[in-house]
Design brief:
Keywords: ATP-binding, Cell membrane, Ion transport, Membrane, Nickel, Nickel transport, Nucleotide-binding, Translocase, Transport. This is ABC transporter ATP-binding protein. This protein is α+β, with helices and mostly antiparallel strands and 155 residues long. The protein is built from five helices and four strands. A two-stranded parallel ribbon has the order 1-2. A two-stranded antiparallel sheet has the order 3-4. Strand 3 (62-67) and strand 4 form a beta hairpin. The longest helix is centred in the first third of the chain and has 13 residues, at 20-32. It is globular and about 50 Å long.
Length: 155
């Protein structure tokens, strides 16, 4: 439901359980209710919480990826879904798990949320992990000691 001229539209899992056609229609409807970032009218923004990366790709300007309750990557949607792609190993694994990509499952099991390590929560599942990952990840747009960089993404 939309409330008047609220500046923020919050959509929490709006496409869960929908078939692809209804997902597309829902994304189109959400898009109708948000303003282009280039508009200077101070219009409405959208915060969409979703597991549906295909829907996010169609509507997002920016992407925040969470793992074990922590934001591990903040990125522009164009570079996240296109080139050079995500930089955090978990973000890359998510995209590679999509059916229209490599359809490769993310290895291992998620951690127990009540027993998270001080360091990287993804380290036990990550092929880039080293002893350094036991320390808290660096602050910034990619919370990773060994993020993918454009040079090794293109290689």
């Amino acid at each position: 439901a939309l409330v008047g001229a609220a500046p923020l539209l919050l959509a929490d899992e709006p496409t869960t359980g929908l078939d692809r056609d209804l997902v597309d229609r829902t994304v189109d409807e959400l898009r109708r209710h948000i303003d282009d970032p280039g508009d200077h009218g101070g219009g409405r923004a959208l915060l969409m919480i979703t597991h549906d990366l295909a829907a996010a790709e169609r509507i997002a300007d920016r992407v925040a990826v969470m793992y074990a309750g922590r934001i591990v990557e903040l990125a522009d949607a164009t570079t996240f879904f296109g080139e050079p792609g995500p930089r955090h190993p978990y973000s890359r694994a998510l995209l590679q798990a999509l059916p229209d990509r490599a359809f490769t499952p993310v290895p291992g099991m998620p951690p127990e949320l009540g027993d998270l390590p001080a360091g990287c929560a993804f380290a036990a599942r990550c092929d880039r992990a080293t002893d350094t990952c036991a320390a808290p990840p660096p602050a910034g747009p990619v919370a990773c000691h060994h993020p993918h960089v454009p040079e090794d993404i293109r290689a």
